[in-house]
Amino acid sequence: MSDDAEAAFGAVADELRVRILRELWEADDPLSFSALRDRVDVADSGRFNYHLSKLRGRFVEQTADGYDLRLAGNRLVGALYSGVFTEEASVEPTPVEGTCTNCGGALEASYEDERGRVTCTDCDVALLSGGVPPAFVEDREDDLATALDGYFRTMLREVRAGFCTQCSGPVDGRLEHDPEHGPRAVFECGRCGGTFHGTAAAVALDHAAVVAFYYEHGRDVRTVPVWEVDWLHGATRAGDAARVTVDVDGDELDLVVDESLSVSVAERP
Ligand SMILES: [Zn+2]
Ligand SMILES: [Zn+2]
């Protein structure tokens, strides 16, 4: 971690400072020094001023209208509300419509240990699995599977567009050939070092040729739950690249995913 990042963590390592950030977040408009102090409810003006000064610059700005959150302050409070630092949540396994693409068994969705999953009750294969913050499941317990589908598609779109889902830093994608799981798409953030893994075929999910191919068959691939898209798990190695065969109602479309995860339609021999 950089010295800057350590200094930033130090600046918020105090309960009173977190309260200041929360009050600024909840206020619709910038707050004057005294209005902010009243809301935070600290009698000692000197102590309040000391802690506010530690936030000023990086997290809080002082404008002509009063004190307000900067982008970093907004991000920090958003992360606190997501519950990743404070909460534990779980959702009991619930049945999911459709069947396992691996064995035809019944599916269920669950949330535990900060992971959302859609798994097969027969062969135990996880058709979808990934880290999700506790805030995600609030009010979504009844349709956890649909929410997970939307969450993972959004994350995939974000890293495909070159943004880290953790810190918004620049992300590079590359193809890796895993001896056990076949070709994999790996995205790595150049800033925070966060990584995001998916199947090689997943990067083709919203490719124009795939969307059009489904459309020609009267379907919209954007609304098919990812655990029903069986070709997502079927990429094979082709030299340094990966070959993906999209199958819709028995018709096939061949794609190539290259080393940098660019997708193109393969030439048919
Ligand atoms: Zn199964
Ligand atoms: Zn990052």
Low-confidence stretches: none
Number of strands: 13
- Count of domains: 3
> Separation of termini?
51 Å
User: Beta fraction of the residues?
Assistant: 25-35%
The oligomeric state of the chains shown is single chain
Order of helices and strands: HHHHEEHEEEEHEEEHEEEE
Largest sheet, order of strands side by side? 3-4-5-6
Principal-axis shape: elongated
Radius of gyration: 23 Å
Helix content: 25-40%
* Biggest beta-sheet profile: 4 strands, antiparallel
Mean pLDDT: 90
Annotation field: number of helices: 7
Give me the secondary-structure category: alpha+beta
Bound molecules: zinc ion
List the main descriptive attributes of the protein structure presented here.
single chain; 269 residues; alpha+beta; Arc Repressor Mutant, subunit A; N-terminal domain of TfIIb; four-stranded antiparallel β-sheet; 7 helices; 13 strands; binds zinc ion
Descriptive report:
- It contains seven helices and 13 strands.
- By secondary structure, it is an alpha+beta fold.
- It has a four-stranded antiparallel sheet with strand order 3-4-5-6, with helices on one face. It has a four-stranded antiparallel sheet with strand order 10-11-12-13, with helices on one face.
- The chain is elongated.
- The termini are far apart.
- Residues 164, 166-167, 169, 189, 191-192, 194 line the site of one zinc ion.
- One zinc ion is lined by residues 100, 102-103, 105, 120, 122-123, 125.
